[in-house]
# Entry
Amino acid sequence: MAANLELNCFSFSHQNTDLAQRDALSFTKEQIELFVAASRMHWALEAAVLSTCNRTEFYLFGPARPALWEDVRALIATIRALEPSAIPRPAARSAEQAARHIFRVSASLESLALGENQILSQIKDVHEQILLSPGKSPVLERLFQFAIRAGKQVRTQTDLCTGSLSIGSAAVDLALKIFENFQRRQVLIVGAGETAETTAAHFTTHGAESFVVTNRGQERGRALATTLRAPFRPLDELPAALESADVAVFATGSTDFLINRVQMKKVMKARKHRAIFVIDISNPRNVEPDVGKLDGVFLYNIDDLEHVVAANLASRQGEIPAAEAVVQHMVNEWQAWHQAMEITPTIASLARFFEQVREQELSRHNSRLTDQERVMLEEFSRGLIKKLLHNPITYLKSSVENKTLRKEDLNLVWALYNLQREEQTDET
Amino acid sequence: MLHVIHILEVMLPLLYLGVFGLYLRHFLQSKDHGTPFRGTHFLYAALVLHVSYLTLRGITFHHFPVSSRAEFLSLVALCVGLVYAFAETRHKESDTGAFFIAIVAILQVMASLMVEDSTTHLILHENPVYGVHVIFTMFGFAALAVSALYALMYVLLSRQLKSRELGVIFRRLPPLSALENMSRLAATSGIALLGLGLALGHFVGLYIMDDFNFTDPKILITDIAWLAYALGLLVVKVRGLSGLRMAYFSLFGYMTFILAMVAVNTFSSTFHSFQ
# Structure
């Protein structure tokens, strides 16, 4: 009989566990290696583990086992030094549903922040780990390859991952739409509180190197300036600081406007109307709204940025059907590949069986044949077997192409000819 | 040779339409920075074929290929395509290509539809200096047109940013600074090429045409328009003006130039007219 091979996925994520449970279930690289090796040794299963801050998922492929979850739970408990009863019930998926799940994860359709990009690189890491681990995992290796393709296609063919979902990164995205990059661009930070520091960090992450800090309180201002390796200017030098800045972030607790239209007009004249992006994330506002009406001044306050974030989220949600279509396409491709893989051992065993019969019959008559007759019979028997195998092999292949392959068909072939599975040599 | 020319006359519009399709898809798609854009290679291939086509036409019909409206349109298409390809290569920015290649494709489709194998042309069109004058002038105009189109994109994107309407144009157009740089580059090279073209034109007029006169209003208008644009550009550069001011200068400068050209052609029925 054809062995019943199964793909299974056990998932713990933000959807079915709380943070403490996910912390307890998160795996280090070494623990993943242990899990993979143990799965192979005890159950002859290919295994892979995706462990991020929002999910820990176990992917297993191989001969079907009646109580797989119980075995996996015991192994997790051993590796993570937990009581098995402390491990919650996972979301369990198998076969097509398991494949669809990892493709959705890769597409970031399952992410807490819809459309985030980090998950794709985490899936690439798992794929790399599969390639580097001792022993072969051809099916899971291919599964994660498909997942990476799904993630990439969703990111190139849809807008699911475009637009920022936090105020700081939305501000950076807008600034990049004005300046392309932050090389030779100066970022003026007005304020020295937590918001100012967080926003400055967003700019640093995106390559900003040149900062100037200004603040009413000199001590805190100088401290932030030191952190950013930036010069400090007292608040009364704000107009002068604005003359050379490309981006100005206002994040102070001031209850008055720190800059008004008249002052900004002078600033713009001095800077020859070079574009400036003013981000006012203070509450109450620090920049007079009319400043935004001046040519070259792009003024965004906290409300504007929140609208941008909300619009980005809505836009991402609108892209879900397109992303799902990409996932579906990938699921179809996966199934076609997987079914093709399922018939390969059957075809190989069938061919091996016929070849053995041919060789046995030839050797039985070998002593009675002349050399010429032997050559003729060799050719004849090979041709005969090729013709006899043509129809069943064509049937199996076309049933994969037409997606009509049934497990029973494979089992019938194995039963009819009493085929034997070739012993696998495992490196582990 | 004629056979090859006929094949290219069919191939070129099809190729440009195909390239336009690639650029349009590139414009509408989300960008994955790891994926290289192949459309640029097809554009280069189309431009090489286009240069070959016009060269073959010139050799076959023994004149510089500006003797008919079809040849003129085809040359304009080639110049716009080459100037855009230069700007794209220089700034590594292919997101705006669809707008320019659309113009190139339309011009070449018109040219291929109108083209005839006529061998009648003015003797002047056989003169190589005249040919170089035409090339420089056309490139100059094409570059100013490209600059104006980039400036228009700058104004559109700037307005979207101001009004917080962050729609498709906002998402797909390159950043303001890139648009400004490309517009500035096209304007500077355009005015230089046009200046050379006009100078050569005067030379051709002076030494080859019998009835050439510097005080001719159409020549005066052209020269004044060029001088005004060049001076404007100099002022922009010296005063360090940027952003919207540079964009408006490029847009209105180009419009003024076009109006001047319309006026020139209205005044004259023979000068720069096509058979």
